[in-house]
Amino acid sequence: MYSSSPFVVSVVLLLSLPFIFLFAPRILPPKTLPAIPEPDEADDLALFRRATLASVEAAGGGAGVRRRLSSPPKIAFMFLINSDIAFAPVWERFFHGHERLFNVYVHADPVAELVLPPTKSFRGRFIPAKATQRASPTLIAAARRLLAAALLDDPANAFFALISQHCIPLHSFRYVYHALISDPGVPSPAAPLHRRHRSFIQIVADDPVLRNRYIARGDNAMLPEVPFERFRVGSQFFVLARRHALLVVRDRRLWKKFRMPCLKKMESSCYPEEHYFPTLLDMQDPDGCTRYSLTRVNWTDSVDGHPHTYLPAEISGDLILDLRLSNSTYSYLFARKFSPDCLNPLLHIADNVIFKD
C-alpha cells in the first residue's frame, strides 16, 4: 500500500500541471505593472495613421496648405488632465483677444470626476480619451493622442505645448507667441536658407539614476532599438515643432519598447513619459531641439516623485518673477505645480504682473 504512494503522488502532480499553469497567473502577484490594453493600442494606431496621412496630403499641396497660407501659425495648447482645470479663468485671460493664434485640446482621464463646467476656450475641445496612470506608458499614449488630434484638426498648428491642469502661464500670450515664432531655429537640410522651428524639450544624458530607469522593464528589454548610451531623460512637459509632432505619431520602432510595462519591483524608477520623447527626438533630430523645457518646476522638496506644490500663501509678484528666470536664452513661459486654491491670488496679480510685458 505504502509502496504505491510515490507513484500516486507523481500521477496527481502530473495531472495537476495544466491547472497550475492555468490558475497560477491569477493567484500569484504579477511581475509587471499594468500594460496598455490592446483595444486602446489598436484605436491609437488608427488615429495616428489618419494624422500621418492628413499631414502628408497637406504637405503635398492639398486643402490644408491653402488653409495654412491663409492663417498665421498657431500654438496648440494640449491639456493632459485627471482633474478639473481649476486655472481655466487664468488661461481665459491669457487667451483673450488671440483666438486666431491658438487652439486648445484636452485629454481628460475618463475616470476623472470633473465638476467645473468648461469655460469658453475649453468648451467642445475634449478629445476621445483613454485611462492614464503613473508608472505606465499610458501617459505617453495620451500625449501622442493629443498630438495626433491637433495635427488632424488644423494644419496651421505650428507648435504643440503639453500642459497639465496644475500649470499656469508666466507671461502674456503675445510674449509667449513671439518667443516661439521668432526662435532662430535651425537650417533645413533641403534648403539651407530656409530655417526650421526647434522643439523646446529637455534632454539629459547624465542623470545619476538613468541606469535604473533604463532597466525598469528588464536588463536587456530595450535592446537593440535603444542602447543605454542613447537613452535620455527630460521633463514630461514640452513644446514641439510640427515636424516633431508628426515624427512622434509616426513612430512605431521605439514605441514598441517604451509601451512595454515596467517590472513591479522597479516601479520607483518607472517614468516612461520622461524618457520616450527625449530619447526619440535625440535619436532622430538632436540639432532640432533646444534640450531645455519652457515649463518651470520646483523639485527642491519633492514628495513621492511629485514636485513642490505652491499654496496660496506663496503666491506673489516676486514668485512669478523668480519662476520666469532661466539659465537658457529664454525665460520660462509656464510653471507648475499649483494647488487649485491658488486661483484667486493668481487672478489678483494676473493683469499687473503675470500678463504685464
Automatic annotation (TrEMBL):
Pfam families: Branch (PF02485)
Membrane topology category: Single-pass type II membrane protein
Transmembrane segments: 6-24
Keywords from the named record: Glycoprotein, Glycosyltransferase, Membrane, Transferase, Transmembrane, Transmembrane helix
Gene Ontology MF terms: glycosyltransferase activity
One CC-aspect GO term: membrane
InterPro entries, per the entry: BC10-like (IPR044174), Glyco_trans_14 (IPR003406)
Subcellular location: Membrane
Superkingdom assignment: Eukaryota
Name of this protein: Glycosyltransferase
